[in-house]
Task: inverse folding
């Protein structure tokens, strides 16, 4: 678990925020243990190349841009945006094998997505819809955390919000009542949907700084976690009785969260996130308060997840006891195992896969 | 040696000083690679639980005390002092497997002892007598060092005091004469006894700060090292002729030392110690001077042991040449190997075991 | 490559600069994963002993000199300069096995050479001639860098100077023209010779601080890299037409460089170097400027090599595509593989060996 050695390859991973790749940048980022160089050509299109010269493995991110080409600054090989080597200083003949992998890359709504597997299978329609990141109807500020932990410990966290009552008791969560709410979990093709309602409770602590209501609220968190680790979440609170399922969300505080967990190595991860608010759009204080609360809350998550990683490293074979609250988590892990096994052309070894129900009311 | 991977489990280990576990504390300490949480119930009794929630392996030491229970602050499982889970937020049914290990624990004379193996075999009568730590007839101050070295390198050090002449030449030891004294080594059931007398020599450097005699002294170190690593030592100095075996210890400086080496992992260790003096009980300066000298001396040990660990890590198969001075050390290591092998139900692989004499005048 | 686990043993390695071993020094240095202690006897002769007591593996470098002997300051064993134990505190009998390895050692021209293999085969005539380090006809200042990288990545760097145009563009190198110059590579018995001329180009940036010419220069780098990693280099520049092969080197700036790469472990290395100038001998500013330029340039090498090491650690099986510029590098690596295989009495496993041409105009 802490030492998973195979990553899903035929999938889109979030590699960076758009703003990280300025016009002049040569951004080095390791994804699924593969070093990747991200940069923009003169037309502003993002290019993703393997960050490892085909000659002696020097990183191209220490190289030099020459127009729309990158020169390796160890021995001078020059590469085009498609990864082809177009110049070798000491010889005229350029062998066809002289190339680095060019990774399919898409810039969409402020996120840079790269496809780590077979380029022929890179289907842009598989990229989840995160338009909220860049929609004038929503406001939010980009966030990033680096984790010294396996990526699945982070997706585990996202798939079971019962932790809000404990990890985030005084920030994003609130009373223990939240943990008792039973979500509806639906297993879709490449994602798990979680729908969770908490009826008639006090607003979450962070929300009390953002909006005032005369009494209790109904709270909802309705979200998909899509392989390999993208969360898309409709959440909010509204006065009790108005927000409940099929309710009208009158006087509601509505949010949309986009989060992406990308494995760097087996024991380190990238975590990109933006929590957007769909109310008080012109109130910068709301945006700032929300951002600060979310960041503080995500540091609470990081603290417990790093602790979990340390415990697991003492004994990688630590058994874990499945609970009802793990339905979404177990579904997602089973889905991930199956996707990796399918990719490797083998049946999943884990017998627990069959036991993971496709949809469960828990 | 630097990479021993099996620890003795059916034994008492010193886990902490009593004062480390205050009324409110949740003390996390790893012992034989097992994370342990130590705390006190409201009656003041120490509780030792595996510091790893049975659900998702989060450490309970990041949890919250609720009366005499501990709540895991990841997903809210609540545990009783016996390790049983008594509440799971999202479900009413609590499976019998929902529990963490409760480790037998005994608080005695300021040390907290935990039993890392089968609880049914935890026999308190096996705990060595360290009443000196807390006896009004003796004075001393608790000490602790953390080591980045295998625990057996520390017990090796304790089992051969010929190092006093070299490692502690200007502190606890003294002249090279000490190293030439030949101890009597007796192998008992679960311990090795070392008896060492040095007749008619100058008092050790540290002792010259504590007490004045007109001439030379006789020095003795009579101690047991008990599995898995507890030293109990009667030592002292008296004017030459009075202190010698069967002597009357007239005008003597008598000490009793209690030390415990507890493996944290294969390459890290805990070291607990208190050197007590049985004379000048009301003179705080003596206690302070003794404590400072012992601490300085133990840092000298740590320096050479860490250096030894670094050398061994370059080549874990480094052969070592047995000397006569290694009799106690070799007996203890053989006893430890046999105890571990017995515990695993296998014969010890090491043929040197047979060669370790049960008692030797060396 | 980044994890080569076998080192050549029957060879001389540079272990230290003479000045590092002062009269009182006990210098600890690990070479090919073997801890070595270097010191001088009272006659000033350098002694090299395995830095690991035969008793319990404590390093002798934490010991004490007693005349021409070293006492281990753990348990007091005393060793002679030939590695023989001559005193064991607690016993009169000294077993013949009580000794540490004494390594053949030669001090020559400010470098200390040690032989890590069979002493019977230590032939001083195999030590490369580095008299320039200590010759009144040359001036230079000793340099040293420690590398967290495999030693062969450093020798790779030395064997292909096409990197001067890129890594050292503004320091030791200059225009891209340098990289296009095709060296003559000759494979000798235990070394590879590289001869590289660049005709009619601007002087290298660093050289412009040292000497002024009216126009362009011819530049040469003629060097041997000798197993296991010693570079001996005649280099310089002279006005175009005078310096060319068989030229007279009129008004030339001539240099001689001595460099030695010594593996510490599989992933760390020692790098000793001195660049000497053979002109302006009495101008200390020239010596200082040259030293500063070379040091700055070697830090540029270190930067790219450490980056290369990091990339290789992500995937030790990274394939590398051979180029014409790799002729010397490939020859040297094949020679090294064969030497190691010969030493182990086995045929080299790597089939590329046959493909490495003994001499090639590339």
Result:
């Amino acid at each position: 678990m802490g030492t998973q050695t195979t990553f899903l390859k035929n999938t889109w991973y979030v590699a960076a925020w758009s703003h990280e790749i300025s016009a002049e940048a040569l951004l080095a980022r390791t994804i699924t243990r593969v070093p990747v160089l991200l940069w923009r050509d003169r037309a502003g299109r993002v290019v993703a190349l393997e960050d490892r010269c085909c000659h002696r493995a020097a990183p191209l991110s220490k190289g030099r841009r020459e127009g729309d080409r990158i020169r390796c600054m160890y021995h001078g090989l020059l590469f085009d945006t498609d990864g082809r080597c177009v110049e070798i200083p000491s010889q005229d003949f350029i062998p066809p094998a002289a190339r680095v992998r060019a990774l399919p890359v898409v810039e969409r709504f402020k996120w840079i997505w790269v496809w780590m597997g077979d380029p022929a299978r890179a289907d842009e329609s598989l990229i989840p819809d995160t338009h909220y990141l860049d929609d004038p109807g929503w406001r939010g500020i980009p966030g990033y955390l680096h984790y010294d932990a396996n990526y699945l410990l982070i997706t585990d966290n996202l798939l079971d919000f019962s932790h809000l009552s404990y990890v985030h008791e005084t920030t994003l969560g609130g009373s223990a009542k939240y943990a008792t709410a039973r979500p509806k979990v639906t297993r879709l093709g490449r994602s798990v949907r979680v729908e969770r309602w908490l009826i008639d409770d006090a607003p979450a602590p962070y929300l009390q700084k953002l909006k005032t209501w005369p009494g209790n609220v109904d709270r909802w968190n309705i979200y998909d976690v899509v392989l390999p680790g993208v969360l898309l979440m409709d959440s909010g609170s509204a006065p009790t009785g108005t927000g409940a399922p099929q309710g009208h969300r009158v006087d509601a505080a509505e949010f949309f969260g986009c989060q992406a967990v990308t494995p760097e190595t087996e024991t380190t991860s990238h975590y990109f996130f933006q929590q957007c608010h769909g109310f008080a759009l012109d109130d910068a204080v709301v945006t700032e308060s929300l951002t600060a609360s979310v960041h503080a809350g995500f540091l609470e998550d990081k603290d417990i997840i790093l602790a979990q990683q340390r415990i697991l490293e003492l004994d990688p074979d630590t058994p874990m006891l499945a609970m009802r609250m793990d339905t979404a988590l177990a579904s997602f892990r089973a889905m991930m195992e199956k996707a990796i096994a399918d990719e490797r052309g083998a049946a999943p070894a884990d017998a627990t896969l069959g036991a993971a129900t496709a949809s469960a009311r828990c």
Q: What stands out?
A: Confidence is low (pLDDT under 50) at residues 347-362 of chain A. Chain A has six helices and 18 strands. The first helix of chain A runs from residue 151 to 159. The interface with chain B takes residues 156, 160, 162-163, 165-167, 169, 176, 179-180, 182, 303-304, 307-308, 310-312, 314-315, 318, 320-321, 323-326, 362 of chain A (CB under 8 Å).
